[in-house]
Design goal:
Largest sheet of chain B: none
Distance between the termini of chain A: 12 Å
Largest sheet of chain A: none
Number of strands of chain A: 0
Largest interface: A-B, 29 and 32 residues
Order of helices and strands of chain A: HHHHHHH
Shape of chain A: globular
Radius of gyration of chain B: 18 Å
Distance between the termini of chain B: 28 Å
Oligomer: heterodimer
Helix content of chain B: over 70%
Number of domains of chain B: 1
Number of strands of chain B: 0
Strand content of chain B: under 5%
Structural class of chain A: mainly alpha
Shape of chain B: globular
Amino acid sequence: MPKWALAYFGLTLVVMAYGFYAAMVAPKEATMGNLYRVFFYHLPHTILSFVFPYLNCGASFLYLYWRSRNVERAAAADAFALASAEITVLYASIGLATGMLWGRAAWGIWWAWDARMTTYLLLWLLYVSYLLVRRFSATGQTAVISAVLAIFAAIDVPICFMSIRWWRTQHPSAVFGGGDNSGIDPSMVPAVLWNMLAWAMWGGFLIGMRYAIERRRQRLSNAHALGFLGDEIPQAFQEAR
Amino acid sequence: MNYAQHVLTHLRKDLRLEWRTKDSINGMLFFALLVVVVLAMAFDPASYPTMTRQISGGLLCVAVLFAAMTALNQSWARETHNNVLDAHRLSAAPASALFVGKALANFLFVMAVEVVLAPIFTVFYNLHPLGETWKLLIILPLGTWALVVNGTFFAALSLRSRNRETLLPLVLLPISMPALLAMIQATTAVLTGEFEPILWIKVLVAYVIVFTTACVLLFQTILSAD
């Protein structure tokens, strides 16, 4: 790992620690008490998991653009698309899990089919299916197929969002009450912002790591492929390391 | 030849193939019928008319979706015999014409299944729709096109993957969830007469426009994926 990456990692840990501190010293919430503190983890994860899909979509567009123009850049874009999709699924899983824990404690049920949860579940499903396609598709086509699918998924997210909102406003669910964080006390704002920053940095770090791993895998598999052509494999392996 | 003629040629070819074998339509029809019977085991359609009205719109759409999925894989498998797909790639005709022709053919097959299935549904489930049933003539074709256009595209996408029969539903179901939701809600609105289907028809129209455009633009990329 290069030095700047280590420094970034250290800085991320510091910000995360401070975020944790800020979340724990923030004033108690009036009705939920300490229970609401999961909010400081739930909110950043959910918001970020709506941001990462668009990194994925952007990288997929770049892949399709560079595919026939610059093979090396195209491979990098593909690696980035994979990394951002995996971190999307990771963050969405954490968002779902914290949301369910919170829902169970606050409302007494694990899951309500309300607008936000349903949209979020669909987002999770879309990107899990993206990862499955990457796993199942034939070797030479994985990148193209998954890039096209990523564009479809990114188009689908806003449509899902709107249609499910209309669906749930048409049939209001009675079980659901509270949980609307449209207004929070100003004393809680710093904790929210610090945690937001911490988890954004952590997400960036994970994407960077995953990207580096995927690039290394690409170089190794290229080296293998070259190995069938001649005796360049030891050198190619050296470069890949 | 202009674009419309290319589309028409592909459409005619697919219809002729289907006319000679009748594989897709027969398979889909029987499968959808089985789904109707199986779902009747899950609840008692005759004794609870109100509940039946509320859920049978959804059941019809789901039966159609599952039936369509069985045929969608087959529709591209035909093109892989004797490397026909490579010939399509070499051809000077626009690639999207091939896609539009096949999507139209699949649309006609699924619509044919619905025309047979809807009366069966009404009889078996003892349905008395309370809304304006003529609106189904707008809703069902729109919803079917929304499912079929994406289905045809993703069937082409998963054509050369290792396990394409498994892959298609895994990709198609999450993507077409908004279309399925809109189709179910609009059908339910017509059957129960409790609310207006117009909002959901608009959602379907928007979905159809957006995804038809995306499919047509990206099909060339999929066809020459390797």
